[in-house]
Amino acid sequence: MRISVIGSGYVGIVTGATLAEAGFKITCLDILEEKISDIKRGISPIYEPGLERLIRNGLDSGNLNASTELEKHIANSDVVFVCVGTPSNEDGSIDLQYIENVSKTIGKSIKDSEKDIVVVVKSTVVPLTTEETVQKIILEESGRGRETVGIAMNPEFLREGSAVDDALNPDRIVLGCTDEKSKAALMKIYEGHTCPIMHCDPRTAEMIKYSSNSFLAAKISFVNELANMCDKWNMDFEMVAEGMGMDSRISKQFLRAGVGFGGSCFPKDVKALRRAAKNDGLGSEMLDATLSVNEKQPEIVVNMAREILGELKNKRIVVLGLAFKADTDDVRESRAFNIVEKLKNENVEVIGHDPQATEAFAEESGITCTDDLEEALRDADCAIIQTEWNEYKSIKPEFLCNLMKKPVVIDGRRTFDNGYFAGTGVEYVAIGLGN
Ligand code: UGA
Fold first, then answer.
1. How close is the Cα of 273 to the center of ligand 1, in Å?
2. pLDDT band for position 327 (50/70/90)?
3. Is the CB of residue 254 below 6 angstroms from any atom belonging to ligand 1?
């Protein structure tokens, strides 16, 4: 089976490299020369643990190839995965321009071919897109009939930082097929997996993806609201979460309170689903609340700083962690931007620290960023933790006392256990910790 993966971003390269590892002949396609030449030299276009090793394995075994010649490779493929980005428009709706362009390219590429092909949408797209946009454009552009062009929607559930492991060991596979041809091809591709495989139509598969992300995002906003109550009533939300998580219907996961969710998925997907619902005359109060709570959370750590330091003007505050979460260099929709913006508005001297993400963050925010913890903390009046990097968990209290002007830690991610700083001279406050 010859498989092409269009789009060599986060979803595409992980899909390509893991399928190559499983023994399929994969060509990763992208219009950006630089990405393709990196992949060909065994360099991963994104920072993701374990990915570069798989890319190199694929190149060595000959299972993985990369190219900018989209039409040629699409025409020779049995299966094509669509993995291009689906960013947000200004009004929060999904921007389908890349999906539309790729659908046209696929249509053109297969126009003169007799070969059957299966097109699988992996990009996150709002319900009905696979049938009403992708399938429609491909059939129109190619002039071919449905019987020779299989179409399916197969959402990805990868988490950044553990994407390779998630792709190799998924907890479910959702196949939204319109026809038997695409179903047979996808069953072959995923035959090595033992997890449940769910069959449905493409629009249901699209909705499963949005519903899963929106549910998790809502869960985070909900626990953030509860944590704020715990703060007010002086109790530790982590204990409340522990008690809640013992109920298997609730589960322990995604009960971490903090400065809110970021990343390339949750904020964008919640906005896109809300917009799509609104466009069809449906209210979405839960989605509205999920987003508005998330916007307010970063304010809490700034208020904590003001309570402890008084006027913030001309104070030196270090934001520890710029990536939207640990184990990634991705700063998209990172809550660090919201925190930095608020501090800048109060004329604070803001320094950013991150082990992986300084370059991208400095470029977008304009603040000074460093990956040197000592340099970041020196003479600081306060440190706000935005990302729960392991590197921060091992910070010794003496280190802070020796370097900082005032050893104050405001923990926006509950990085440290309650009591870690007790009696050390470090003033420690955290979201959902109470007094
Ligand atoms: C998320 C989903 O978890 C994946 O299942 C999905 O495939 C992916 O989006 C996607 O649509 O591609 P990801 O964005 O990589 O994955 O990150 P998560 O680990 O879900 O974290 C998202 C944000 O929520 C982070 O900012 C994290 O700090 C925050 N979070 C997470 C919390 O604030 N509290 C929690 O308890 C968990």
1. 17
2. confident
3. yes
122 CB near ligand 1 (under 6 Å): no
Q: What is the pLDDT of residues 47-82, one digit of tens each?
A: 889 999 999 999 999 999 999 999 999 999 999 999
Nearest CA to ligand 1 atom 29: 261
Against a cut of 0.85, is the pTM above it?
Answer: yes
Name the nearest CA neighbour of 236 among 218, 257, 253, 217: 257
Active site residues: 265
The C-alpha atoms of residue 415 and residue 317 are separated, in whole angstroms, by: 18
8-22 pLDDT, tens digit each: 999 999 999 999 999
Identify the residue whose C-alpha is closest to ligand 1 atom 1.
159
- The residue whose C-alpha atom lies closest to atom 30 belonging to ligand 1 is 261
pLDDT tens by residue, 256-296: 999 999 999 999 999 999 999 999 999 899 999 999 999 99
Of 116, 119, 110, nearest to 140 by C-alpha is 110
Strand order across the 25-29 sheet:
64-67, 25-29, 2-6, 79-82, 117-121, 149-153, 173-177, 197-200
Do residues 272 and 88 make contact, with C-beta atoms less than 8 angstroms apart?
yes
CA atoms of 190 and 350, how far apart (whole Å): 48
Task: Answer yes or no: are the C-beta atoms of 399 and 194 closer than 8 Å.
Answer: no
Cα-to-chain-centroid distance, residue 90: 20
Pocket lining: 421 vs ligand 1, CB cutoff 6 Å: no
